[in-house]
Amino acid sequence: MVGRNVTGVNEYGHLTIGGVDTVALAAKYGTPLYVMDEDAIRANCRALKTSLETHYAGHGMVLYASKAFCCKRIYQIIAQEGLGADVVSGGELYTAMQAGFPAERIYFHGNNKTADELSMALEAGVGRIVVDNIAELELLSALAKAAGKTANILFRIKPGIDAHTHNFVRTGQIDSKFGFALETGEAMEAVARALSLPGISFVGIHCHIGSQIFDIDPFCHAAEVMLDFAQQVRETNSCTIQELNLGGGFGIRYVEEDDPKALESYMEAVSKVVSARCEKHRLPVPFICIEPGRSIVGDTGITLYTVGSVKTIPGCRTYVSIDGGMTDNPRYALYQSSYEAIIANKAAQQKDFTATIAGRCCESGDLIQEHTPIQTPAVGDILAVLSTGAYNYSMASNYNRVPRPPVIMVHGGTDSIAVRRETYADLVRNDL
Ligand code: LLP
């Protein structure tokens, strides 16, 4: 079973998460229901932190990419574990501040931050603003100057690595909405401009090559490209880059066939490249940040649904309809993402059935998975979809005015509500 580090089967043949019976959770809180194993989230944070400390002699920081799963509780957990956070909007920043997250450990990303958002970040005193383009640099300088503050910035760089092809190639580097290109010279021009502007302190550079990446090579290659640029910056502008943020993107296992590399292999390989490249260029090893989102929360969460109908179309397929769907998990509709499903109240039984799991929206494409093995389904069963901890709650919508499910955290065998279930009243709250 996927997510085997968080899920199990108990003496009643029920699926468990963090040792807690999922059928009992569904009865207690209703469905659809997101459930996350807080202990597993904390274990993932610790493993990343330890690995970074080991490979960079403590000279670095793990930033949780909070777009993967954002609510007050996760910022509290991340803060307690000593991580920083990557935020990408005023809304994420606001949530972090409401949770009491230390502002100096926040990195603010985005390719079109508004003046309001930049002012909010300056006011909050975020640690770094990752500047995406020249217009933003000029705006930030003006805002910082007017507020009597200095913004510590990184530049978002396009290292020109297509990590989604198996044999990565140096293409597509200019055709990305994020960041500054290297080959056109715009990145170097931006550095020169930053050094001349008031209210700006240029600290370093950032890249993010993609998400759900299994290969190690693209990460290594990106680190090389970034350090080569650091060396050019020093030659051209006599300025030493203090910080290198290598982004996130480590893949996780959604289905048995997925083969993510052990965290240690990424960290070891990339850190070797970093030290070799720094030695070659006679650069001091910069402060290293990584920004994993999915690999911190992805396999720590599941979603529980109730089966409402089982519709067999002879010679075609069987639709198993659940009380959620693309509103709580749009990833199959958007990316044809693979998931493992299991009937939680029949978890000890063989998967002897092939089903298409359909959501409840008025939309034929509202599917969670097609032709997937599950136990023989019946109306009233609790269906669990595994590894839904990342980019499910955070991408949920109210399409068809479906209220978002609550998020339950299990911790040490107990459960608590991290986010309450939306009500119909919540849905009309802003309607005038
Ligand atoms: N840093 C930056 C600048 C990013 O843009 C992202 C993700 C991350 C870090 C975290 O990447 P991770 O470690 O989670 O792979 N909605 C898509 C994923 C979009 C990711 C966008 N950026 C999905 O559901 O697969």
Blueprint of the fold:
Layout: E1 7-9, E2 15-17, E3 20-21, H1 22-29, E4 33-37, H2 38-56, E5 60-65, H3 72-80, E6 84-87, H4 90-98, E7 106-108, H5 115-124, E8 128-131, H6 134-147, E9 151-158, E10 180-181, H7 186-196, E11 200-206, H8 217-237, E12 243-245, H9 263-281, E13 287-290, H10 294-297, E14 301-313, E15 317-322, H11 331-335, E16 341-343, E17 353-358, E18 367-374, E19 382-386, E20 407-411, E21 414-419, H12 424-427
Parallel strand pairs: 4-20, 5-6, 5-13, 6-7, 7-8, 8-9, 9-10, 9-11, 11-12, 12-13, 15-17
Antiparallel strand pairs: 1-2, 2-3, 4-14, 14-15, 14-19, 16-19, 17-18, 20-21
Helix pairs in contact: 2-9, 5-6, 8-9
Supply the key terms.
binds ligand LLP, eight-stranded parallel β-barrel, 432 residues, globular, 2 domains, nine-stranded mixed beta sheet, 31% helix, Lyase, Ornithine Decarboxylase, Chain A, domain 1, alpha/beta, TIM Barrel, single chain
Can you put this structure into words, describing what you see?
The structure is a single chain. With 432 residues, this protein is an alpha/beta fold. The protein has 2 domains: 7-37 and 298-427, Beta Barrel (Lyase, Ornithine Decarboxylase, Chain A, domain 1); 109-292, TIM Barrel, CATH 3.20.20. It has helices spanning 22-29, 38-56, 72-80, 90-98, 115-124, 134-147, 186-196, 217-237, 263-281, 294-297, 331-335, 424-427; strands spanning 7-9, 15-17, 20-21, 33-37, 60-65, 84-87, 106-108, 128-131, 151-158, 180-181, 200-206, 243-245, 287-290, 301-313, 317-322, 341-343, 353-358, 367-374, 382-386, 407-411, 414-419. Strands 4, 14, 15, 16, 17, 18, 19, 20 and 21 form a 9-stranded mixed sheet that branches. It has an 8-stranded parallel beta barrel with strand order 5-6-7-8-9-11-12-13, surrounded by 7 helices. Strand 1 and strand 2 (15-17) form a beta hairpin. Bound molecules: ligand LLP. Ligand LLP binds next to helix 10.
